[in-house]
Design a protein that fits this description.
Layout lengths: L5 E6 L11 H14 L3 E8 L2 H6 L4 E9 L2 E10 L2 E7 L1 H4 L17 H16 L10 E5 L6 H7 L6 E5 L7 E3 L19 E2 L2 E3 H8 L2 E4 L2 H6 L3 H4 L3 H6 L4 E3 L23 H15 L8 E8 L5 H13 L3 E8 L1 H13 L4 E5 L3 H10 L2 E4 L9 H7 L3 E5 L2 H6 L5 H6 L5 E3 L4 H15 L2 H13 L8 H19 L1
Parallel strand pairs: 1-2, 1-6, 2-5, 6-7, 7-11, 11-12, 13-14, 13-16, 14-15, 16-17, 17-18
Antiparallel strand pairs: 3-4, 4-5, 8-10, 9-10
Helix pairs in contact: 4-5, 10-13, 11-17
């Protein structure tokens, strides 16, 4: 007799396709389906943003609280996009225009500490049995917005195990120490070994010190987090808990991202069929016919992504016949700089500020290369989309980029396993050399097509990672059950 699925509560601030600002949402949205096949039934708790509430159909109120950190709130259960959702409907915190984290002026919502503390407290109450007939064996926390959950569990005398996944350690979720009372925190654990960070409450540190296990989204990033360069002030915490840290590589949804059946492009199986998409992309972006490689950037525009380096390396790339199509938004200076580059190089550089999911599919389908020169990249999905669509990744050697792209050096080319270009260090000269190599490979059509074929065959789904998550869940839940038996 097969065992019934084991229940787990996932807690996150966003979940694709309902609400998305980056790769976190894609991972949170993808894990429930892949873990279902591993015997785990995931219910995902997310905030009831205006956009989320309007997307729910036949939702059912299953819990109500008159005072959740000073606001009225309820938990709504709904099925949407194949997800089993628990939505924290707290209008005073989430029913507003703007992004999940920023107001119309691009500044953090002033009450972000309260908003996501409420999400964490709701998670702790649910884990403790607030929902009739359902209680998880463990709680999976995603980034700082869920980080206070272990503190609230401990304050409630509850011993449900948590795993904390770091998607980006750069964001700590800091609040002044004097906000303890407003956030419903007793102060227990507000010290150097707990969630205190230079006099502030650190929601991320609360998760890192309070969870039973810590996970991040690639093996290389896990190692990098132990260093001052990448640990963002928390490298000591990671080193102290290293026995509990694992790096599990993200995957992508290979059904949504399938060049053979993608309704948003001209479907193709290999490089010859891809050519029609390349021609269409040049037309759409107003780029001239060219004998050089068409490279794309689909990214948040920030220095973290190394896009200031790309601006400096761009002239040399264009001189060799390269072209650039960019879709992204973020830092205003970078937006203006790329728009200026497009004005200065008509027919070679074209820029769209913003984000458009359908357009991103057309970009990957038409691109001959995708550029990801990040200074740090926990995992990265962009290079995986590029691999899947035969757009050779040109990436920095960091985090998940190093774990997913095989550099086209002489040995890898001879062995027939290269899938892209990896540069190191993260500098303008190194990026210029990587782009020079891209142009040189592109000038050898047979070699370039072989690289594209390798890229398209490279595994980028969840097949290898899902069993690792399932094993982590089982170990934590079984250990906890044994301890309380």
């Amino acid at each position: 007799m097969s065992r019934a699925p084991r229940p787990v509560l996932a807690v996150a601030s966003e979940c694709a396709p309902l609400v998305k600002t980056g790769g976190l949402a894609d991972v949170v949205g993808a894990l429930p389906a892949v873990l279902s096949a591993q015997g785990w039934a995931v219910r995902t708790l997310i905030p009831g943003y205006r956009k989320v509430m309007s997307a729910l159909k036949r939702a059912k109120v299953i819990a109500e609280w008159s005072d959740l950190l000073g606001v009225e709130a309820r938990i709504v259960s709904a099925k949407a996009e194949g997800l089993d959702l628990l939505v924290l409907d707290a209008p005073a915190l989430f029913d507003r225009e703007g992004s999940p984290y920023l107001d119309a002026d691009g500044n953090d919502w002033r009450d972000n500490d309260l908003r996501f503390a409420a999400l964490s407290l709701a998670a702790a109450r649910i884990a403790g049995g607030a929902l009739d007939g359902w209680r998880p064996e463990l709680v999976h926390l995603h980034d700082w917005q869920a980080g206070l959950t272990p503190v609230y569990l401990r304050q409630g005398g509850l011993h449900i195990p948590c795993v904390m996944t770091i998607h980006n350690i750069a964001f700590h979720g800091l609040a002044p120490g004097e906000r303890l009372s407003a956030l419903g925190l007793t102060g227990a654990g507000f010290d150097l070994d707990g969630y205190e960070y230079y006099g502030h409450i650190s929601a991320l540190k609360a998760g890192l010190t309070g969870a039973r296990a810590i996970n991040t989204v690639s093996p290389t990033y896990a190692q990098e987090l132990t260093t001052p360069e990448f640990g963002m002030g928390l490298d000591g915490v990671i080193r102290a808990r290293w026995a509990d840290v694992s790096g599990i590589l993200n995957g992508i949804d290979t059904e949504t991202w399938n060049p053979e059946a993608d309704p948003l492009i001209s479907p193709f199986k290999g490089p010859p069929g891809k050519a029609a998409n390349t021609r269409a992309l040049r037309t759409e972006f107003g780029l001239a016919a060219s004998g050089g490689p068409l490279a794309v950037v689909v990214s948040r525009l920030s220095d973290q992504k190394g896009l200031d380096l790309l601006l400096d390396a761009l002239p040399a790339f264009l001189e060799q016949g390269g072209q650039l199509a960019l879709l992204g938004s973020g830092d205003r200076k970078l937006e203006h700089a790329f728009l200026a580059a497009a004005d200065a190089h008509p027919g070679q550089v074209s820029v769209r500020i913003g984000y458009d999911e359908a357009l991103s599919h057309r970009l990957y389908a038409g691109a001959e290369a995708v550029l990801v020169p990040s200074r740090f990249e926990p995992c990265g999905l962009t290079q995986m989309y590029g691999l899947r669509y035969g757009a050779l990744p040109v990436v920095a050697r960091t985090g998940g980029l190093a774990d997913t792209v095989i550099h086209a050096n002489a040995a890898a080319l001879a062995a027939g396993c290269a899938t892209g270009i990896v540069h190191d260090p993260q500098s303008v000269p190194a990026l210029e050399e990587a782009l020079r190599q891209l142009c040189a490979l592109h000038a050898m059509p047979a070699v370039f097509r072989r690289l594209q074929k390798n890229a398209m065959k490279h595994p980028v789904g969840w097949e290898g990672s899902a069993p690792l998550y399932a094993a982590l869940y089982a170990r934590l839940a079984d250990e906890a059950a044994t301890e309380t038996a």
